[in-house]
Amino acid sequence: MSNKKVKMTAAAVLASSVLLSGCGLFGGDEQATPEADIPKDVSYVDDAEDVTEEAEGTEADGTGADGEEEAVTETTKRELYLIDSNGYVVSQTFDLPKTEGTAKQALEYLVKGGPIEELLPNGFRAVLPAGTEVDVNLKEDGTIIADFSNEFIEYDKNDEMKILESITWTLTQFPNVKKVQIQVNGHNQEVMPVNKTPIGKGVSRANGINLDTSETVDIRNTRAVTLYFVAENNEGDPYYVPVTKRLAMTESNDYTAIVNALVAGPSYNSGLTKELSNEIKLLSEPKYANGNLTLDFNEDILGLEEKVVSRAVVDSLVLTLTEQAGVETISITVNGEGDLMATDGTNVSEPVARPENVNTGRF
Known about the structure:
Elements: E1 57-59, E2 74-83, E3 89-97, H1 102-108, E4 134-138, E5 143-148, H2 160-171, E6 179-184, E7 187-188, E8 222-232, E9 238-248, H3 254-264, E10 287-289, E11 292-297, E12 308-309, H4 311-321, E13 329-334, E14 341-342, E15 352-353
Parallel strand pairs: 5-6, 11-13, 12-14
Antiparallel strand pairs: 1-2, 2-3, 4-5, 6-7, 8-9, 10-11, 13-15
Helix pairs in contact: 3-4
């Protein structure tokens, strides 16, 4: 990362989850922004290293097909929120070249016709109009400004929410980014430019992703929660899809309502499936302590082997519950007893953290 200020512009290959949402900020040609349009109370991060902790990188094989040495390319894993064949905004994890401008790079890889085209998974598409350029600035309060060129406003109005969610969830994968503010040519946008979706002073993951409004509820007694269900690509490979629903928090413990929503599953016509069967039940209220949430289930959470839980079931629980403030890990017991293993060998009665990256191909 360079010591330049975080202000950066885009190359022609640009950018845009979610979330999304997964798997986990700057650089480019200068693009003039009128000084009068820059908020006077903005303080920019001087060192881009302060913006995010780099994911562990890898190095490409330095030997070519002819046996001669080639330049080694270091890569780092990034979550990009793309649109799948069902119209959901979903994170996919890619090994991208290490660069000084990681947030800017992430957006550049969301642009149609850009570098993402050679990497797109089966059935997925990029979200930003071809030719879109972007500039990013990070404020000290955790708000990142995504400033797009005029090409940005050429999107289909039916994609507006998907684009907003993709930008927001892609950028908020970085730990120091809490909220996203949209600009077009340096001008703040309080509504999205095509279908006029309100965005005010910025949006965050709290605004949700892939909103499910199929059930009419009294919002006064509900809370928005992001749940992780499962879809399949055109080749039958599964991946997780984040869906935000409003849940009636009638239980004394909110975590119980969330687990019950995972058991209930997605909406009938969603095209999604669930990992938790209808027979799975919590035997007691989840217990929270020091960032860990302990869940005690009946024996129906087990697979065919004794004391073994499907890793897909564990991931669905972990991804969903760690979206809740303060929850960093979960532990699973059955009838109050531990020593449970996931199908990948993980001891799930010990705290299990959220995967660093979502939808990496492991399921």
